[in-house]
Amino acid sequence: MLAPSQPPATRLVRRVLLVSPNAAQRRIFSIQLRRAHYEVMEAGSVADALQLCQRNEPDIVLSDWSIPGRAGMESGLDLCRAFRAGERRNYGYFVLLTSAQDEVDVAQGLEAGANDFLAKPVTTQDLLVRLAAGERILRVEEDLRASNAQLRTALDRLRDTQAAIDRDLAEARKLQQGLVKQRSGRFGPVQLSLLLRPAGHIGGDLVGFFPIGEDRVGIYALDVSGHGVTAALLTAQLSVHLSGSADQNVALRAAQTGTDAVSPAALAHFFNNMMLEEMATDTYYTMIYGDLNHVTGRLRMVQAGHPHPFLQRADGSVRPLGNGGMPIGVFEKPIFDEIDVTLQPGDRLLICSDGITEATSPAGRLLGDDGVEAILRTNAFLGGHVFLESMAWSVSEYCRGERQDDMSAVLIEYLAPAETVPLPRR
């Protein structure tokens, strides 16, 4: 007599629940399944079967279609529905035994949650083949569950990492906002107002000003290509080069030209050489840098790929200035545009980034120069930060809140002298 074969070492022993009012049938199936190395449980009624399901959670249920019982539970269909409705840690495979299969039986069984059907009389080969098919389904489900668990673990780690990144970016945003130490300044009759509003946590725009001497002030607006950390790091470095400290501010280094300050065009060329020679990066930026004499109103600017500044005269007329120029950090011998304009009392000049001029409506239309001019005319009676906030609101409304780029601006106002209003005589 041959010894019974042993189950493969890697095979998981499945737990099978046999449900039938026929004890002899259960006995036959039980012997066959144990020989095939299944762990077998038996139940003669639906109630007993449900108790075993709750206590032991069988992997496979093999149930008769007809199971006389009580409390309205009279068939394998009722057991199948209750089996599917119960809480389980793992998926269970359910097979119904029928005397004769027809389309109505199959439809009812599938609707109740059955996976497979076996017609009586059942041969050992048919039984083991169907259970083998059920094992394949269970293995697939287990693999999916394991993969989902790994994905959930990975997702939790990603959430934790993202939360840490968000905290760091929130702190970086505070630091970047701190680069603009003054949001406004008054130099004689000239009022300067700044707007800096990143599209995300951190951005690549930078605006600011610094005194050059008793009668002059340097004004700058930068827009680094791209977004995120790379752009923010470059703006931080540029802010050092344009800070108020004379030993760090390249515009104030007398050694550059032997004068008290570097000219706007010379500063643009200095930055271009620095980008090409010292920084191994594909990043570039646009810039407008101006040297304003707030006594005479003369403003000398260099335009390096930045959107056109807009000059609004005291009579309300608006015109863009400059021909564009090339961005900084792209060409070895760039051509920058130099602008020389004199502001008169009541005039103002707006420098804004492409986050404003290239703001896009839901229909895909750019705000453009015409849109900025319209904002200037519509808000001619507003000044300073009130005007900048009104402009920012108009841009956001134009985009319907879907702003994709950083928004920055410098507003230079040559304030008209206050008029003397004579008091009426009594």
How do the helices and strands line up, and which of them pair or pack?
Blueprint: E1 15-19, H1 23-35, E2 39-43, H2 46-56, E3 60-64, H3 76-85, E4 93-98, H4 103-112, E5 116-119, H5 124-177, E6 184-187, E7 190-197, E8 205-211, E9 216-224, H6 229-241, H7 254-257, H8 264-278, E10 285-293, E11 298-304, E12 310-312, E13 318-320, E14 337-342, E15 348-352, H9 354-357, H10 368-378, H11 384-399, E16 407-414
Parallel strand pairs: 1-2, 1-3, 3-4, 4-5
Antiparallel strand pairs: 6-7, 7-16, 8-9, 9-10, 10-11, 11-14, 12-13, 12-15, 15-16
Helix pairs in contact: 2-3
- SSE sequence, one letter per element: EHEHEHEHEHEEEEHHHEEEEEEHHHE
Strand content: 15-25%
Cα end-to-end separation: 136 Å
- Identify the CATH class of the largest domain: Alpha Beta
User: How would you name the CATH homologous superfamily of the largest domain?
Assistant: PPM-type phosphatase domain
| Secondary structure: helix percent | 25-40%
Main structural class: alpha+beta
Number of domains: 2
Rounded Rg: 40 Å
Q: Give the averaged pLDDT, no decimals.
A: 84
Shape: elongated
| CATH-derived architecture of the largest domain | 4-Layer Sandwich
Write a structural description.
- The protein is an alpha+beta fold.
- It has 2 domains: 15-147, Response regulator (Rossmann fold, 3-Layer(aba) Sandwich); 181-414, Phosphatase 2c, domain 1, CATH 3.60.40.10.
- It has 11 helices and 16 strands.
- A 6-stranded antiparallel beta sheet has the order 6-7-16-15-12-13. A 5-stranded parallel beta sheet has the order 2-1-3-4-5, with helices on both faces.
- Helix 2 packs parallel to helix 3 (76-85).
- The protein is elongated.
- The relative contact order is 0.08.
- Mean pLDDT is 84; it is low at 1-11.
